[in-house]
Amino acid sequence: MNDEGKVGWRTLGEFIRGQRELANLSMRQLAEIAKISNPYLSQVERGLYKPSADVLKNIANALHLSAETMYAQAGLLDDSKDGADHHGVEHAIKLDPRLSVDQKDALMRIYRSFTNEG
Amino acid sequence: MNDEGKVGWRTLGEFIRGQRELANLSMRQLAEIAKISNPYLSQVERGLYKPSADVLKNIANALHLSAETMYAQAGLLDDSKDGADHHGVEHAIKLDPRLSVDQKDALMRIYRSFTNEG
DNA sequence: AGCATGCGCTAGGTAAGCCTAGCGCATGAA
DNA sequence: TTCATGCGCTAGGCTTACCTAGCGCATGCT
Question: Pick from A52, A66, A106: which is nearest to B52 by CB?
Answer without folding.
Answer: A52
